[in-house]
Amino acid sequence: SKKPGVVTWISFIVYRAIPFAFELRTLLDWATTKTTLGFYEWLKLEDIYAQLFLVKCRIEMDHENERNVGDKQGLHLKIAMGFGLFIILCFVIWFPLLFFIQASPGNIIN
Fold first, then answer.
1. CA 54, 85, 71 angle in degrees (round to 5)?
2. 27 to 24, 48, 49, 50: CA distances (angstroms)
3. Residue 12: strand, helix, or coil
4. What is the CA radius of gyration of the chain?
5. What DSSP letter does each residue of 72-106 carry, written as one string?
6. pLDDT tens, 48-98?
7. Do 18 and 6 form a contact (C-beta atoms < 8 A)?
8. Of 10, 3, 4, 12, nearest to 46 (Cα)?
């Protein structure tokens, strides 16, 4: 029901990334709505609706960028997404490991 676009896409992605926010909202919706669906079925229905909304946002962004099906991805996008995500993932994975290795009691000189 919302107009798809970049801002709504990013805000929806952030909302879905918050642990249990989607499930809690779905549980409250199910509890307050007259329905014949069980909770598991209602959860699946909401998940399908969410995935369709994300696809709708992606299609709208492709139309705004005048990108057609089968067009190659731009080099700037591949570099930004590829290397940017690689650096972020390496930082998320390796920083805690390196931090705890430096803070371990085994590194103290006797």
1. 55
2. 5, 15, 15, 15
3. helix
4. 21
5. PPPHHHHHHHHHHHHHHHHHHHHHHHHHHHHTSGG
6. 999 999 999 888 887 887 777 787 878 888 888 888 889 999 888 888 888
7. no
8. 12
**pLDDT class of 8 with cuts at 50, 70, 90:** confident
Count of H helices and E strands in the chain? 4, 0
d(CA 32, CA 27): 9
Token output for 3: 């107009």
- The model carries a pTM of 0.63
Assess contact for 7 and 55: CB atoms under 8 A: no
d(CA 24, CA 43): 10
CB 77 within 8 A of CB 85: no
What single-letter amino acid sits at 87?
I
